[in-house]
Amino acid sequence: MKTSYYSAILISALQMVLLAIFLNQQLMQKYNYLQFPNNDIVNLGIGFFVFGLNILVIIVIRNLNKTNQEMERLRINELKFQHITEQNLIYRQHHHDFKKHLLISETYLKKHDLEKLKKYLATFSDKLDEGIFHINTGLEELDALFNVKLSHALTKNIKVKFHCMAKLEQHKENILELVIILGNLLDNAIEACASLEENIERKLEVELREDLFGTVITMTNTYNGIIIDEEKLFTPGFSSKKGKQGQRGQGLPIVYKTIKKLGGKLTVQQDAAWFKVTAEIKK
User: Fold this and answer.
1) pLDDT higher than threshold 80 for residue 179
2) pTM of the prediction?
3) Most exposed residue of 7, 176, 231, 232, measured as fewest CB within 10 angstroms of its CB?
4) Rounded to whole angstroms, how far apart are CA atoms 256 and 152?
5) How many domains does the chain have?
6) Half-sphere exposure (CA, 13 Å, Cβ side) for 172?
7) Of 23, 40, 71, which one is at a domain's C-terminal end?
8) Cβ contacts of residue 271 below 8 Å, gap of 6+?
9) 183 and 51: one domain?
10) Torsions phi, psi of 51, nearest 5?
11) What is the domain extent for residue 171?
12) Res 191: pLDDT
């Protein structure tokens, strides 16, 4: 890809030089100054050569566009692969947990304690229902992302609420940016909840809705209660954890930069119990 960029720059520079020579020839022709022998033939040759360079530039730009599209497709596939990997890890965890549930059920059966078995299976069934998310954002990549991340949150004993009142097909061209925004916001929220003590309730609420501006994404989660200046939150490398500067805290700065690129807005609200992030993305 670098070769194509260098080729485009070189061709453009050569065009400018030839055009300068051509214009000089035209301006100086009436003074008969700095003229080539067979000046008309030279000018015609320069004209054809510049025309050929224009065609070549079009071909190079077309190849660059194809390369960019291919790179974006590869990046999206890489993100999909990451989601599949995470989903596989969650599946393996669920498989391990399911084996434990079967062993417990088998123990009750051996003891002929059907009443306890019945209660245990009822509790297990309720837990399974809690872990099922019916997500339809209009974009398959985002549906997969939400399912993976929210399922992961449940494994961290985080109570999750998800409300989708918007369809995001209109943002299909910016799918990569949306994955970056939502992936980082979800990771930050899950990490903040998971870092809380076991005796503190862990909650995560996600809401997608539409207004006159465009799409509004809100994520609210419990956290450690340390209120930080918003400007610092958007500073790359900043962390509220001592000794971790530069090692984490990249999520919100990346989200902020990506939303700005899309012409949107990112705001943060904090109190002693809740951390709320609102991302507004233009239609």
Assistant:
1) yes
2) 0.59
3) 231
4) 24
5) 2
6) 6
7) 71
8) 227
9) no
10) -60, -45
11) 133-282
12) 92
